[in-house]
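Hello,

I think I submitted the nicotinamide-adenine-dinucleotide job twice by accident. Can you confirm which output corresponds to this input? Input:
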Amino acid sequence: MQFNYIANAPRASSSGVTLPVIDPSNGEVFDELQRSNAQDIDEAVQAARHCMDSVWHKVNAMERGRLLMRLSQKVLEHADELALLEQRDCGKPTKQAQADATALARYFEFYAGSCDKLHGETLPYQDGYSVFTWREPHGVTGHIIPWNYPMQIFGRSVGGALAAGNVCVVKPAEDACLSLLRVAQLAAEVGFPAGAINIVTGYGHEVGDALARHAGIEHISFTGSPTVGTLIQQVAAERHCPVTLELGGKSPQIVFADANLDEAIPVIINAIVQNAGQTCSAGSRVLIDELIYEPLLARLGNAFEKLRVGPAAMDLDLGPLIRQSQQQRVWDFLSDAQVAGIPMVAQGRVVDEAPESGFYQAPTLLRDVPVTHRLAQEEVFGPVLAAMSFRDEDDAVELANATRFGLVAGVWTRDGGRQFRMAKRIRSGQVFINNYGAGGGVELPFGGVKSSGYGREKGFEALYGFTTLKTVAVRHG
Ligand code: NAD
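Support: Only one job matched these inputs. Its output is below.
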């Protein structure tokens, strides 16, 4: 049985109700979580507030850095345990789960080093004045986390918030809580004071909503779907609470005829196959120069046919999807493609060892996807790659920008001038030239434009979002 973690102690929800924890590899229930409510959120917010007012505001930047560094090392010591928890909870193949645990440690390490480098400025003003700015924490911050990369998103969100001097109330996704509940215990063991990190589990529309509405939450970091992002904004607007939104994407990987295809192909495939396509920055569209459309599709198709899907512990190319409804969502997209006559180039294979009760989906490559079709416009959040061709650079830019999203883009070309032109003209938060960083890069500011959200997480830039700026003007004559 799992409990909320509030003020460095396990707590049962006041609801007395639990939720099942399901293993996506076989569909079986193996644990229980607290189905929390607004009262539990209130308890967590009060614990966080008390921590801030009594202890945390006195912990200086250097000490915060040392605490975060100790947590980073603790996570590394427990990396195998954390990876196994997340593997069972989320169906991640072993290598992916281990990479996520290591990335969590790296986030804490990066933000440990940033604490005492976050400073204000002195500003020129009238004679007789000295004017400067302070970067101050918001106070009690709320963090709503999705299920696809719980450890990584917790690391970037909570790591940055703590580094900037905030305390945290965290609502993990109902499908992905186990690793985060354990990390909160590890944080207590390395010396984080009671109330600095609080975790409350349960459904989004219950406990997530209560978190977003709570008057004591002074900043919200939300990572999740555009639909829920809209709800969070509406709720936060009522009390003018600042929000950072990391929403979805329909990110293009654009391949020109002069690209090094030997290098591009494995990266293009990994960008959609990683985490079974359940990645906000998945490269889910491949836009191909018409001069190489057929030969590149043939090579991608061959590679897709070799991909294998199976139970997480088998550590194949893909594990299962998170839950049955996600599997159904992918099936719906694929059956729409069939109805629209969109040709399938190739599919990978689900191995015989995969139990029927698991949530498996073979990776699928589709071609000639019309730009207006939902497969070219909406997030599938599964291993489905939509290919389409373009005539020239202008056409490629138009196609790349032809969705409501703008999170990440990849461009493959050896032409230096084109690399810069494309990077300038594509509307997205990140552009990768001759590489593609699906979810990677602790140091790199990350976030979207348009319906992919606003504000930036990761890198030093995130710390500006986790602070508010105070200007102090001293008249000394
Ligand atoms: P989701 O929006 O359904 O859920 C995200 C979180 O919000 C969960 O913790 C959920 O419980 C909570 N939630 C749900 N309803 C809520 C409500 N009414 N009020 C408050 N909280 C609520 O998204 P998901 O299905 O968990 O994740 C998939 C989505 O997340 C995709 O769209 C994906 O692109 C996006 N995502 C974006 C990023 C990014 O950094 N841009 C990263 C990962 C995932």
